[in-house]
Amino acid sequence: MKAIKTAIFLGGGASAAEGAPVQSELFRDYWKLVRQKPELVDPTMLRELEDYFGEVFGLEIRGAEPDAVLFPTFEEALGVLDLAVRRRETLKHYDLENISRDSNRIGFIRQYLVLLMAAVLDHPAGSSKALHRRLLENLRQEDALADTVFLTTNYDLLLDRALAALPGYEPDYGFSGLMAGKGRPANGRTVELYKVHGSLNWLFCPACNAVDVTLREAGAARLLTGSRHSHCEACHSVVQPVIVPPTFFKDLSNVFLGVVWHQAERRLQEAGKVIFCGYSFPDADLHVKYLFKRAQTNRTRTLKFSVVNDHPGKKPGRVEEERNRYRRFLGSEVDYTELSFEDFATDPLRLYR
Ligand SMILES: [Zn+2]
Description:
The chain has 353 residues and is of the alpha/beta class. The chain has helices at residues 12-16, 26-36, 43-57, 74-87, 105-122, 131-141, 158-165, 219-225, 255-270, 286-297, 316-330, 341-346, and strands at 6-10, 148-152, 169-172, 189-195, 198-205, 210-213, 240-243, 273-277, 304-308, 335-336. Residues 205, 207-208, 232, 234-235, 237 line the site of zinc ion (ZN).
């Protein structure tokens, strides 16, 4: 096998550069979607989420202007429930499973929050600059695509769709060996894409222990409509999206995600360089940091790092804070560039040298 030379790691900023909503604005964007396209929203889910934000965070969302509501972050809304589950405690009005038949409201709200994210990411409001497409086209023209592996924390399908739009190409998510013959494209070329927090187009059947990949659409969004596609073709069980936000990390028991992490680590150990795009190296992502620390230390050749995370209007204080965060963890040699994702997508090879 040919050694992979460069790993491109995409964070939320890369998707934001192409118009996708950022994590901190997910709730606001969801309630804007509720107003604009109510037909896309499940009424039970909406009512439950409005009750949750009302009862736990004191927010009156019904009838309010989404821009005027001070929402908690996605991590906060999810993290509170996740800790309750982990400690086997409850919040007033929000119980775990018990002998009451309609119990486990916490479990439902957790799922609704994940589906909310799927709905928002599947209907981005922003304009698209097709930067992922541009990046891939340029890498292919320079014959560098075969020497590139992609990793991402993003659940959205911007890179997946851009890859599938290249004639003859498909993403290889790393778990095709587990998929009983239907994982690999028959005659196409694959580009490795490791989505370490899961993906909107991976639907997991817990009975079959199988994942169905819906390449060009966000399968998770189908679950919102309750269509027949929300059931496993083989056993008719209800499928679940494989989406694991950092607060959920104990759920890494999912065998598919375990394989993704294992393959990602192996590729990083073979890589000569990592280019971070739109990723701020947040403190909360300790699992990601651990992945890079292992790849950096368990090798003979030095692993080089470049960071691409500038955008118009970024405050100098934030730049310095972020640069320090990278350098204190990965070393003073980290090449912290002044490039935006658009600059990089336009001429990616400048960082390959
Ligand atoms: Zn099944």
